[in-house]
Design goal:
Blueprint: H1 6-30, H2 38-64, H3 70-93, H4 99-121, H5 130-148, H6 155-182
Helix pairs in contact: 1-2, 1-3, 2-3, 2-5, 3-4, 3-5, 4-6, 5-6
């Protein structure tokens, strides 16, 4: 078995970071760490930002140094989905985002994952689109804003958070439509 390269290690690291991130975010708001929720919330935010930056780094390193692997093609988008979906579900629990918005985002991820599986069975690789990358970026920014934005704390931050949430939701739908239109042939029966 060959050694795991740096981009794949960064992807695995991102998955591992999900556990302390969720524990700190939910535990801090549930009072597991005492009455001061700021320390666990800020620590969770830092972990989320670090994990998000590893997403940016692993792809750039893999492409620049020709270190793209099948493991990376599979795990990188999965790690992104696990990170963002974990954060969104925790934020529903905290009352920071409506459940319907998270259901829309997660439904899109299931549909795209299903498309990728069908395509893979037919020997077709569905590359990530720019719409999908914009969607992921806005979702990660939205999560960061929702983590720091205690409702009613700073008025303009409430407004900014809502604007970013709506942009992320629009990009979620647009990126789904883009995938469906570009890859409609994937669902046609192979003869």
């Amino acid at each position: 078995m060959s050694k795991m390269n740096l981009p794949n290690k960064l992807t695995i690291f991102r998955v591992i970071l999900i556990v302390p991130f969720v524990v700190l975010l939910l535990g801090g708001n549930a009072g597991w760490f005492g009455s001061n929720v700021m320390i666990p919330n800020v620590t969770a935010l830092v972990i989320f930002i670090v994990a998000s930056l590893t997403d940016l780094a692993d792809g750039k390193i893999a492409r620049k140094y020709n270190m793209v692997t099948n493991f990376g093609k599979f795990m990188d988008p999965l790690a992104d989905k696990l990170l963002v979906c974990s954060a969104l579900i925790a934020l529903v629990e905290m009352g920071r985002i409506p459940a319907w918005a998270v259901i829309l985002i997660i439904a899109r991820e299931f549909i795209i994952s299903g498309f990728r599986l069908v395509a893979s069975d037919n020997g077709v690789v569905i590359a990530a689109s720019y719409w999908g990358k914009f969607k992921t970026t806005f979702q990660m920014v939205m999560v960061c804003l929702m983590m720091v934005n205690v409702p009613g704390w700073i008025g303009w931050l409430d407004a900014l958070t809502q604007i970013v949430m709506w942009i992320a939701l629009v990009l979620t739908v647009v990126s789904l439509a883009d995938y469906l239109v570009k890859n409609k042939n994937v669902l046609k029966e192979q003869r």
